[in-house]
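2024-03-11 09:14:02 DEBUG pipeline.ingest accepted 1 chain
2024-03-11 09:14:02 DEBUG pipeline.ingest length=138
2024-03-11 09:14:03 DEBUG pipeline.predict start
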Amino acid sequence: MRIIVFLSMIISLYLIYLHYSDKSSFCDISEGLSCDIVNKSVYSEFPPGSGIPVSLMGFVTFWIVLFLLNKVEKGKKEAKKKFSKYLFYLMITSLLFALYLVYAELVLILSICILCVTLDIFIILLLILSFKLWRCYS
């Protein structure tokens, strides 16, 4: 799980950098497949137009996942159960938000960000793994 979280944090940091940068990303392939178009759109901030990059929210979320994993690893049985449940619910919330972002990409922006889709896949994997972890301690 930690490898997925670390990769997610690195991707999120790169997307934060791209959000504020004038440079083009390596995944700016076409109009329909462009991290730049998606990452600089009004929907790359939440709430839209707020100035808070979604990628920053993603980085903070993955940092919280790492924090919760540490609590699960080092805690006693009841703490493991509690923090693994928190982790599972955080990942459900993350998936719901990711679905909103996929909708924004496909319907509103009409472009797909490869890095964003990678994070969406990582969120699904973390949701599955967090469910297994929670069931292990329940």
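2024-03-11 09:14:41 DEBUG pipeline.report The mean pLDDT is 96.
2024-03-11 09:14:41 DEBUG pipeline.predict end
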